[in-house]
Amino acid sequence: MALTNALIVGASLAGIRAAETLRRDGFDGPIAMVGDELHRPYDRPPLSKQVLAGEWAVERTALLEDDAVDGLELDWHLGRRATRLDLSRREVELDDGALLGFDGAIVATGARPRTIPTGGLTGIHTLRTMDDAMAIRAGFEAGPRVVVVGAGFIGAEVAATARMLGLDVTLVEAAPAPMERGLGRELGMVCADLHRDHGVDLRLGVGVEGFEGTGRVEAVRLSDDSTVPADLVVVGIGVVPNTDWLEGSGLTIDNGVLCDETCLAATGVVAAGDVARWPNRRFGEVMRVEHWDNAVEQGVAAARRLLVGEGAGTPFEPVPWFWSDQYDRKIQLAGRPNDADEVTVVTGAIDERRFAALYRRGDRLAAVFGMNRPRHVMQYRQLIADGASWDAALESASS
Prior knowledge:
The protein is α/β, with parallel strands linked by helices.
């Protein structure tokens, strides 16, 4: 059955790229766009960097100019949250009781930050939305002692931004090294040293037991019985896919919306971005990827799968890739470094914080990590996409 009425739930990067793709590929029927924020889709990576630092105005984060957005002719439902999807009736219910029908739906509801009980204290933040970033930015103006909980990429970027503003920063991470699960211990410690180089008080291998204060946070209590003074806390301990509204819908929910290899979750329903989980045949792994580039590519792929209808879709099998700007370093990772058998630096030097390292799994090149080596990361990302062997990757490095 041809698509005649499209509904995109999630006014996100994946959602707006899906809308653009539908229009670009010739769909001229109605498209409704639902978003729980009042903002039109905006770019999230600058929130923990340029926006938080006060270098960018809010308007600069817009993903499209107003004229381009208007040209998509979307039926906007902003400030509204989807609460239920009924596959049999082909409709989505919103929190104001409105019912939106569809014959093709794109689920792009993203994810929300994990939280820690605050005990009712103010001054404790998470960072996911524009409003979150502006609240933290306002708090930074008072020159607070900042504690960041979680040394993943969001936490690390917030810590770096705060230090570059001259603030006193403590970064707390429960694992023995930042991003150890993805990068491994050695390269995780390189990231740790980068923060130490810039004056961050880094506490590794210790968790957060709770917060202290009267009305407002005054200290963070750690699992080693120490306390860290804090006037402002940012919690960055990962995210949870926004799938609560889909319970009972008939879609398979398992750490995200489970799709087939073409992003199809059910007849006439696809998913894209942080909320989608699918089998990536390139890596032989069912994955959910929380990064900007994946949201762009999967938004496009999901929209095209919807247009195919009952036909066979094209498998979505990207090489995951992301970047992080911290201080004067550009950190990039491409591929899947988890469970690597070997990690080898192929160019540059770790002690200079300027290098590229390759990850081997079996006899294949699995991933590349770079610090201020963007050209090399892109070179090896292509080799991963080409299915290069480990020997071929090393030969490329020596040539």
